[in-house]
Design goal:
The structure holds two protein chains of two kinds.
Chain A: H1 3-8, H2 33-48, H3 57-79, E1 85-93, E2 98-105, H4 107-130, H5 137-156, H6 160-178, H7 185-216, H8 221-230, H9 236-252, H10 261-264, H11 270-279, H12 284-291, H13 293-298, H14 303-324, H15 329-350, H16 353-381, H17 392-395, H18 397-411, H19 417-435, H20 441-467, H21 482-497, H22 509-513, H23 525-551, H24 565-572, H25 577-650, H26 657-677
Antiparallel strand pairs in A: 1-2
Helix pairs in contact in A: 2-3, 2-5, 3-4, 4-5, 4-11, 4-16, 4-21, 5-6, 6-7, 6-11, 7-9, 9-12, 9-14, 11-16, 14-15, 14-20, 15-16, 15-19, 15-20, 16-18, 16-19, 16-21, 18-20, 18-21, 19-20, 19-23, 20-23
Chain B: H1 3-23, H2 27-52, H3 57-88
Classes of the chains: A mainly alpha, B mainly alpha.
């Protein structure tokens, strides 16, 4: 696909086919209120949360509810022909640099606003049930509000510096919330791991910002994109800048090789996992690439996008395999999230920009549903492990039904949300491979097809282990309260319908994002019939295999004992990446450094010290005699003199303040006199 | 009016302040005298500010700063005086010579 379609994203709405820009919208102009409301509720809950009878959750829910309605109104205003808004105020000026803070409200931002506020709203409602007896309840709501505010700031900021502020804001909130139960050591370690791992990517992100500023002379995103399109900035340095920015995206969106933090991040409360580690924060990396898409596309003819494609292909595959062997239900979902994020990157990489963003939308809906459903299950059985679950469909009918809807969407079954978006990405990769627009498109295509199959397999395994068979846990599980099941129903209903926004050929979604028809292809047998049949068929085969394997237990073989056992071990150790990081980075720095310091201390420094000591003893005994005779006399004499004069001076320190003041004024008078007459 | 008038007034006020600080026994009166000295400085600032016209505006601003600082200082000072009174039933400056050697 050419660049024209992409660029339209950053132009005004008059480019949109079939939509006449007739007016300046009322709501798009009010969009600065949307990040402000959660920020205010953060402050209110932080300082006064415990004084409220409900410990502050109504403030958070009210603020985010209003923000959601505003976002929705703004988005509807936008898709019915209101103008996009871009405005900024000068933050501060240096001689050559004008730093502004401002907002940029276009289709991408509008969509992100709706997604973020909507999921936040549902998660906050859900948390009133899930967190009800938590001892840091108010703080939890404060942190959720701060997170939402930061995320909204991130997606609306018109320049890279302000974006970085939001970027780090969501990072620190993620850190707070992963470590919410910090009394247990693994949880606080997971928080630190998440923070430091993403930070490694952030270093690249910051250097990318600097590089872009040096190249373009501005932090403004629209201007940078414009310069990149025109070719005013180009060459290897732009490529490097794009790759550095992508480092940040790898860290934040948990892509290979920095994906290791996301599964551990499941130590946080489940609503947090749904909001931050599935639906919103982790898509910040995708948003970044999408927002700066011209930079990626026009640098050396799209080389950065090839890198994005390869990383995405690797990530989606290895994460899907890992999801297959987890016992912790949240970890299954975490690896699944990593894999689905890779799909979004793949969509961007092969040029089906709309499909990537569409998958972001559908994934946010069905993955939030799955996480909240998993939270409901965990709430009931008090364990994260699927080996403690089983047979829950009888005990928790509402959770069961909604969870199955979410799982089918994740597996990509027609006509649920995940089907349309995932299929468009796979189709886009195939088209890019046939047209030869991307060198790596075939790798992406192959990886995406295999991953789709494995996704269906691990999804089926997860559902079977959780909801079918006999209950293996303790106590009597019970359905969760209405505050928890109602968000599930809302999300379940949306999962059923949201996919049709992207229905091939007639779907409205692409018109919101794009001007050109290059994604709105005519009906073609290959893309609209054959490919969907293959993917859905593959998913159904995977379901059948899972049924045989995990439900009927027909294949009672131990995979570890086969000739592929090494693969199992390889996957069980998470491809040794964690060990590599711990053994290859942390320990070499930690232990040898400590050992080297110890050795140097024992041998070098001690040797020097001992040698010096012996020399000193010899010299000292000689000196001693001279000291006793000559020096002592001088020293004692000086000390005696000081003692005597000090005794005299002592009388001046009378403790009488007025006498001190008199001396002060007299001194000043003398000083002035000397100055005036000298 | 020549600026010298103001300077003379300010010098007199300052001298009265110095006298009060040095000679008074009562801690509150000492603090009052300090205020006199600060206000003498304020008169100087405002007088020179008026003399310089447009260019002297910072002088007035500075006078406002001095007033603000003086208010803070008197707040702290009176708090100390009250604490001393509660402890010793007296605010005589001459008796407050506890901090010597």
């Amino acid at each position: 696909m050419g660049g024209d379609g992409v660029n339209a994203l950053f132009l005004a709405a008059e480019q949109i086919e079939g939509v006449e820009v007739t007016r300046t919208g009322l709501f798009p102009d009010l969009m600065w209120l949307v990040p402000l409301l959660p920020a205010l509720s953060f402050i209110a809950i932080l300082f006064f949360g415990k004084k409220f009878p409900d410990k502050g959750h109504s403030v958070g829910i009210l603020a985010i509810g209003v923000a959601f309605l505003l976002s929705l109104a703004g988005f509807i205003d936008l898709v019915t022909g209101a103008q996009t808004v871009e405005k900024h105020w000068v933050w501060y000026e240096l001689e050559t640099l004008e730093l502004t803070f401002g907002m940029n409200y276009d289709f991408l931002t509008g969509l992100m606003f709706v997604v973020v506020t909507f999921i936040s709203l549902l998660v906050q409602i859900y948390s009133t049930g899930y967190m009800h007896d938590d001892e840091r309840y108010s703080w939890f709501y404060a942190a959720l509000s701060l997170f939402t505010a930061s995320m909204l700031l991130l997606v609306t900021s018109d320049n890279l510096i302000l974006m970085l502020v939001g970027w780090e804001g969501v990072g620190v909130c993620s850190y707070f919330l992963i470590g919410h139960y910090w009394e247990e050591k693994p949880n606080s370690s997971a928080a630190i791991k998440a923070f430091i791992t993403t930070r490694i990517g952030d270093v690249g992100f910051m250097f990318g910002i600097f590089a872009l500023f040096i190249l373009a002379g501005t932090f403004n995103i629209t201007e940078i994109n414009h310069l990149a399109e025109e070719g005013a900035i180009a060459g290897p340095s732009l490529t490097i800048a794009a790759l550095l920015l992508f480092c940040g995206a790898i860290g934040k969106s948990a892509q290979f090789p920095l994906h290791v933090w996301l599964p551990d991040a499941m130590a946080g409360p489940t609503p947090v996992s749904a909001l931050i580690h599935a639906a919103t924060m982790v898509v910040a990396g995708i948003y970044l690439v999408a927002r700066l898409f011209p930079v990626f596309e026009f640098a050396s003819g799209g080389v950065p996008l090839e890198v994005v494609g390869v990383i995405a292909a690797i990530t989606m595959l290895i994460a899907a395999f890992l999801a297959l062997i987890q016992d912790d239900i949240k970890r299954v979902l975490a690896y699944s999230t990593i894999s689905q994020l890779a799909y979004m990157f793949a969509g961007l990489a092969v040029g089906v920009f709309t499909a990537g963003i569409f998958h972001l939308l559908t994934h946010a809906v069905f993955k939030a549903l799955l996480f909240l459903g998993a939270g409901s299950v965990i709430h009931a059985v008090h364990s994260n492990n699927m080996s403690d679950m089983g047979g829950l469909r009888k005990y928790m009918p509402a959770t069961f039904k909604t969870y199955i809807i979410g799982s089918l969407a994740l597996a990509g079954i027609f006509p649920l949300a995940g089907f349309f978006s995932k299929d468009e990405i796979i189709g886009g990769a195939l088209r890019a491979g046939i047209d030869g627009t991307r060198a790596t498109a075939w790798i992406v295509f192959a990886s995406a097809l295999i991953t789709a199959f494995i996704t269906a397999l691990y999804t089926a395994r997860m559902c079977i282990k959780t909801f079918w068979g006999e209950y293996r846990g303790h106590g009597e599980p019970h359905e969760s309260p209405g505050s928890m099941t109602s968000p599930l129903w809302v999300l379940g209903g949306l999962t059923l319908v949201v996919g049709f926004l992207g229905f091939p050929v007639i779907g409205v979604f692409k018109y919101w994002l794009f001007a050109e028809g290059e994604v709105a292809h005519e009906f073609e047998l290959l893309y609209n019939v054959v490919l969907p049949v293959i993917t859905v068929g593959g998913a159904l085969i995977a379901f059948f295999l899972a049924y045989k394997w995990f439900y009927r237990n027909e294949w009672r073989f131990d995979f570890r004992k086969t000739s592929f056992g090494w693969m199992y071990g390889f996957a069980e150790r998470k491809y040794y990446l964690d060990d590599l990081y711990l053994g290859g980075v942390v320990k070499p720095i930690q232990y040898p450094l400590a050992a080297a310091t110890y050795w140097a201390n024992q041998h070098v420094i001690d040797g020097i010290v001992n040698g010096t000591a012996r020399g000193t003893i010899g010299a000292a005994s000689g000196t001693y005699r001279a000291d006793q005779g000559v020096v002592d006399f001088g020293v004692n004499g000086a000390a005696g003199l000081t003692n005597f004069s000090g005794g005299l001076l002592r009388y001046i320190q009378s403790g009488n303040v007025q006498r001190y003041a008199a001396v002060l004024f007299a001194s000043i008078a003398i000083f002035v006199a000397v100055f005036a007459f000298a | 009016m020549p600026v010298a008038y103001f300077l003379v007034l300010s010098a007199l006020l300052f001298s009265i302040g110095v006298y009060g600080v040095l000679a008074r026994q009562h801690a509150v009166l000492v603090l009052l005298s300090v205020e006199l000295m600060l206000n003498a400085a304020n008169i100087n600032l405002v007088a020179f500010s008026a003399m310089l016209g447009e260019a002297g505006v910072p002088g007035q601003v500075f006078a406002l700063f001095v007033i603000a600082v003086a208010a803070a200082e008197v707040g702290v000072g009176l708090a100390i005086v009250i604490l001393i009174y509660r402890n010793r039933r007296s605010v005589d400056i001459d008796e407050m010579s506890l901090m010597k050697w």
